[in-house]
Amino acid sequence: MDITQIVEDIAGAMARETERGKVADYIAPLAAIAPERFGMAVVLRDGSVHVAGDAEEPFSIQSISKVFALTLAIGAVGDQLWTRVGREPSGSAFNSIVQLESERGRPRNPFINAGAIVVTDVLLGHLEPREAIGQMLRFVRELASDETIRIDEEVARAEQETGFTNMALANYMRAFGTVRGDVAKVLGTYFHFCALSMSCRQLAMAGRYLMDGGRVEGRRFVTERRARRINALMMSCGHYDNSGDFAYRIGLPGKSGVGGGILCVAPGIASIAVWSPGLNGNGNSQLGQMALERLVYQTGWSVFEPKFS
Ligand code: DON
Which residue in 5, 72, 99, 277 is a FRET match for 110, CA 20 to 30 A apart? Predict the structure, then answer.
């Protein structure tokens, strides 16, 4: 199977697509991104990297950072995390507040905004915001073996200035006690996580630990069981109220962000990142999903593909 060729063919097909979705416009730095952009990177278990299109261009990873924040929080407090956040798909929009009232402030899962805000609060249980942001940056740099990854301060500032729904979510959960720390500190940290800027190559490299049972180049970052569980959550909850459809069409763990990126994992086979800023109605990359669907169709990498040996 010639993965380089497959990735190039997909990028070529995506360049010709006219239905590209709608670029996020709630903050100026995202609204300014051209809808023509498309990038893809596939890292195989043998370490080879296959890229096409705008794969080297950094973009705002936004909610994909929720995967890395969850990994750090599980590392910090283990299964205690699940007393404060659930593991069920929400069936609601990423920034929805409706379930929080009936479910007494406990978010459905760590990949919706409310859940990621709780995860951030957990990290701040033993760190100051500056330390938690530094830890996150060191973590993704180590995972990707790339010291050039940075946080876009302009994006972080814009998130802060427009983040009224997130403020509502955090304050509401503070009233229930699922958020325990200083709400302003929790949100400031959460917004910096969202503002991580990475290219498809860097993101696919950073996802290698989920492809390889928690290890990167022999070094263990999480246990095999935790890697498996994070993948399960990505499959069931990684695309908000579009998660069922993502599993149906692609059949792989994946996590999206409103910057138009998706990190996708074929366990034991590949770590994949796609980026195209146009979003579908659920806030997930329109062409990113289409590209992944094509990749899985051509490679048979879906976890539901029978593997008889
Ligand atoms: O927190 C927010 O609402 C934004 N930073 C967007 C997060 C996000 O990527 C949701 N995703 N699809």
Answer: 277
